[in-house]
Amino acid sequence: MKVGILTGGGDAPGLNIAVYTLTKLLEGKHEVYAIFHGWRGILDKEVRRVTSRDLIDFAFEGGTFIRTSRTNPFKDETRAEVFARNLRELGLDVIVAIGGDDTLSAAAQTQARGLANVVGIPKTIDNDVYGTDYTIGFDTAVNEAIKVTESFKTTLISHERVGVVEVMGREAGWIALFTGLATMADFVLIPEKPVNWDIVANRVKEVYKDRRWALVVVSEGIKEYGGPKDEFGHSRLGGVGNELAQYIEKVTGLETRAVIPGHIIRGAPPTAFDRVLAVRFATEAFNAIEDDDFGKMVAYRGGDIVRVPITEVLGKNRLVSGYWIKLYETYWGP
């Protein structure tokens, strides 16, 4: 068969390992094609046959060697017709789509319309893909956010300041939660638990009185600022950390600074966990192809790698809930 591999949406550490591993497994039996720039690669016919030798030099780097985009191939029927025609001309039998909810939703439509068989691999540093405990890239992003936060903490202590660290996370606050737990932040703000900023300022004031510095971690998704949206309807985020820092300083009178590591936390080389997860996901995707088990997403559940129908995970987000919300409330609840 002709098997195409694409990475869509935001880049994430571990993507290159997943692409390399899958290529290495497939190339003995099938023709493997890299689809460049995500779904846009089919619209523009940026598709090239590759071997594992082409990919090995980039396998352990962050980002994605085959590039990415936030292109929606089904944005309108005119585009969908071009997409369908190009797929027929390219002759791809299977597409392995590595991405989050938007990328996987396009994969599900591709399967439903009978354009190609698909297998999905979940990735996003936000860790918010429904149906899997972990996604490729999350562990690395958290570790990088922790490094930034710990470095920032040393200067807060030295100058006796209050600090706010803004990390990525649209609907889900997993990065902020894990970063806050790992650094024992004095307050963490996540989209799942809206909180009045006066509560944050009061907590900061109490902590500062005791030890002369304080640390707050905030998820960027607690506030949207409008502006242009991407093809899947998402607004750009970022900037709430600065706004929160200004508010805390105004209310408490304490010198407050903010840092926003932003995209830096998702550009690092993948951690051991993300490397092994990428290998395990790619291996199960290969098995799904060999089993003709299409329309499935591979997932991590309780330590095992399983397959779930892509249609079951669409339109939902894996949010901080259950045990994790209780843990959040233990440290930062009312």
UniProtKB/TrEMBL annotation:
Entry's EC annotation: 2.7.1.11
Matches recorded under Pfam families: PFK
Swiss-Prot/TrEMBL GO biological process terms: canonical glycolysis; fructose 1,6-bisphosphate metabolic process; fructose 6-phosphate metabolic process
Pathway(s) of this molecule: Carbohydrate degradation; glycolysis; D-glyceraldehyde 3-phosphate and glycerone phosphate from D-glucose: step 3/4
Endoplasmic reticulum listed as a keyword: no
One cellular component (GO) term of this entry: 6-phosphofructokinase complex
EC supergroup of this enzyme: transferase
Phosphofructokinase domain: residues covered: 2-289
Protein name listed in UniProt: 6-phosphofructokinase
A molecular function GO annotation: metal ion binding
The entry's keywords: Cytoplasm, Glycolysis, Kinase, Magnesium, Metal-binding, Transferase
Cofactor(s) essential for the protein: Mg(2+)
